[in-house]
Amino acid sequence: MNGVMVVIGTNDLDEYYEMDTVPVMGDKVVCKFLETKVGGMLANAAAVYAGYGCKTYMIDCVNGGPQSENMERELRECGVDTSYFSVDASLPDPRCLIMLKGGERVIFVMDRKKRDLKLTADQGRLIAEADIVYSSLSELRAFGAEEHITERIVASGAKLALDVEAGTLAEPEKDFLLLGWADYLFINSGSHRRLSELYGGDYGERLREMGAALVYTKGSRGCSVCAGDGEPIHVPGYKVKAVDTTGAGDTFNASFLYGVSRGWTLRECAEFANAAAARAIGFMGARGGVATEAAVEQFKEQFLTGGNQS
């Protein structure tokens, strides 16, 4: 495997605010504007993967406006090839509102209004030549059913990896079948609860029978990997002070897939990804995880030596 990855997703602008308290429905809170940074879950992962020196492409549909051009330029500066972007001037500028409190955050994602997208011939050829295709349910769902994008990815021989977000599970029957096409599913605690509600406690076993490796991310508690008939792999997390957890999951996922591209074992992939994500939350901004392999290994060595793994 040469490690060529194609990311299908959205690049957006993250507006950061500090809340005076965490609200419940009906509350009013005071928010202080902090800064604006370029982000987007899948774009963040693309930047992290490219940071390891791997050829990384991104497929997105943008409006071609000034903000879009600025975000695209920043991706290119991270080493991501954006030459396969398509343009639809009717689309809004993609934005996220990130509300911080005590190192944690709530994210409000504005509707990107991407619907019934079509793959261009060049995009189709790019996917056919990829080693890994990384995306999410909502991004794949943005393509019209007649595009058969998931089947095309699998037929190409690429490994399909999906970031499973709880809020993207909108069509339970169709979504489960789509998840079943994947080789790797990244599932956080919220997604795990939602999957269990929709499909029952045995959903993981059923997806493994369909061929997927399930990677459960648990923040500071580390991660678990369940694949095939093997015993679950549990890897502890790191005791680090969080500055901003935005992008930690994106860093983890991209770093895990970097390990896959290198032919590492699942345990090695998980250990490296845990360290990369822990390192990332020490920085403000969703792309704090962009680093070299050597920088992540140095971080891991320092913390293992200091006994700070939880």
UniProtKB/TrEMBL annotation:
Keywords: Kinase, Transferase. Pfam families: PfkB. GO terms for molecular function: kinase activity. Residues 12-288 form the Carbohydrate kinase PfkB domain. Gene3D superfamilies: 3.40.1190.20. InterPro entries: PfkB_dom, Ribokinase-like. The keyword Transferase applies. It comes from the Bacteria. The keyword Nucleus does not apply. PANTHER family: RIBOKINASE (PTHR10584:SF166), SUGAR KINASE (PTHR10584). This is Kinase, PfkB family. It comes from [Clostridium] asparagiforme DSM 15981. The lineage of its organism: Bacteria, Bacillati, Bacillota, Clostridia, Lachnospirales.
